[in-house]
Structures are given as C-alpha cells and as structure tokens.
Design brief:
alpha+beta, two-stranded parallel sheet, 2 strands
C-alpha cells in the first residue's frame, strides 16, 4: 500500500477532528493483515504533520492481529 498517502489521510483527519486545537497524540490500530507497514507510517508521520496543528504530535500505533 501507499503508506505516505495513508499517513497524509490520517493527519488530515486528525487535524479536521481537532478543529482549532493542537493535535497532541494520534492513535492508530493497524491490523497485521491490512497490508500497511507500521514502520513506514512512523517514518512518514513527522514529515506529513510538519506545518500542521499535528506537528510534534506523538504517534501511537497498536499493531493488532486482526484487520
């Protein structure tokens, strides 16, 4: 999958949900069968979040067994 595009969508959703507030933590659950590489999302996160209210936010990923 395209982890960069997924990370961009996650950051956009977090910023949209936060409204005018700063995003401090983003929590994701990524199933092992989802076809998404959690380390790739981690790699992209800071770059994607830069310049947004999510800049500096902590990314927490739960790598669960299910999708």
């Amino acid at each position: 999958m395209d982890e960069l595009a997924i990370t961009q969508a996650v950051v956009a959703a977090a910023v949209d949900k936060a409204g005018d507030a700063r995003v401090r933590t983003v929590r994701l659950r990524i199933g092992r069968d989802a076809g998404v590489v959690p380390d790739a999302v981690r790699f992209c996160f800071d770059s994607v979040a830069a310049g947004t209210p999510a800049a500096g936010a902590r990314l927490v990923i739960d790598e669960s067994r299910g999708v």
